[in-house]
């Protein structure tokens, strides 16, 4: 018996990084996983893994989100992972940067939660996990203006859903990682004028001496998706090796 045996789980941004690691970890624990992403080519790499089915979904599109929700009879766990990291201060953030970041990082979660909550409420059972960040209301970080703002909003969104539906069988929590070694992070490092220095800067803030792995975040995801966390709702789960301290 797996820790998630028979649970139906839907997640976004499953093609790489934390989303991919979580999808695989969920399936290994017996869940029936619908792994979605906007990148169909990368998503194909999950095809053939027992317990996982893939579907290309753009969570910034209402019609695609609503269609996904209608396809499934029910969902036990919804894990909203999709997000984007903008580099810069408020002076570097144009309106287009603000709009894109808030749409992907926050409004996509609004879309997904609003689409899947009704069926959860019908069953009086549901579990929502949202990807926030330690860079939010928890900690400021240099050159992360709109990213931090969006992740602070995710924490507020999660707490609001938790308190509104706590008596109707719904749980909602968020995960707040520090620096996670993912393809996205590596890409951002390589995009800097001096990638070697950018990497050193990231490593300098790792008090434990290394970055977090996507798999380590996935372990936390499994706990929150399982009945082991049945008494947990409305909370930020920090996994940052003490970076915030």
Automatic annotation (TrEMBL):
It comes from the Eukaryota. It is an enzyme of class 1 (oxidoreductase). Keywords: Cytoplasm, Lipid metabolism, NAD, Oxidoreductase. Pathway: Siderophore biosynthesis; Amino-acid metabolism. It is found in: Cytoplasm. GO terms for cellular component: cytoplasm. GO terms for biological process: erythrocyte maturation; heme metabolic process; hemoglobin biosynthetic process; lipid metabolic process; siderophore biosynthetic process. It catalyses: (R)-3-hydroxybutanoate + NAD(+) = acetoacetate + NADH + H(+). Its main location: cytoplasm. Its EC number is 1.1.1.104, 1.1.1.30. GO terms for molecular function: 3-hydroxybutyrate dehydrogenase activity; 4-oxoproline reductase activity. It holds the Pfam family adh_short_C2. Homotetramer. PANTHER family: DEHYDROGENASE_REDUCTASE SDR FAMILY MEMBER 6, DIHYDROANTICAPSIN 7-DEHYDROGENASE. Belongs to the short-chain dehydrogenases/reductases (SDR) family. This is Dehydrogenase/reductase SDR family member 6. It comes from Cynoglossus semilaevis. The lineage of its organism: Eukaryota, Metazoa, Chordata, Craniata, Vertebrata.
């Amino acid at each position: 018996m797996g820790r998630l045996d028979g649970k139906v789980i839907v997640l976004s941004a499953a093609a790489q990084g934390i989303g991919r690691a979580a999808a695989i970890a969920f399936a290994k624990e017996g869940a029936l996983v619908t792994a979605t992403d906007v990148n169909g080519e990368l998503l194909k790499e999950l095809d053939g893994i027992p317990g996982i089915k893939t579907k290309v979904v753009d969570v910034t599109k209402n019609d695609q989100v609503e269609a996904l929700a209608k396809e499934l009879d029910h969902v036990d766990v919804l894990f909203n992972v999709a997000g984007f990291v903008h580099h810069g201060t408020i002076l570097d953030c144009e309106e287009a940067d603000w709009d894109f970041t808030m749409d992907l990082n926050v409004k996509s979660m609004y879309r997904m939660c609003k689409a899947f909550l009704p069926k959860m409420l019908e069953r009086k059972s549901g579990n929502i996990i949202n990807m926030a960040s330690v860079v939010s209301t928890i900690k400021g970080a240099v050159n992360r203006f709109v990213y931090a703002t969006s992740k602070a909003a995710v924490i507020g969104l999660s707490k609001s859903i938790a308190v509104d539906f706590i008596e109707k069988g719904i749980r909602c929590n968020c995960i707040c990682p520090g620096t996670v070694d993912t393809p996205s992070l590596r890409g951002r490092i390589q995009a800097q004028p001096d990638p070697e220095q950018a990497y050193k800067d990231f490593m300098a803030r790792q008090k434990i001496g290394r970055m977090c792995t996507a798999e380590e975040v996935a372990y936390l995801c499994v706990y929150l998706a399982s009945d082991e966390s049945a008494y947990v709702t409305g909370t930020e789960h920090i996994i940052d090796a003490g970076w915030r301290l």
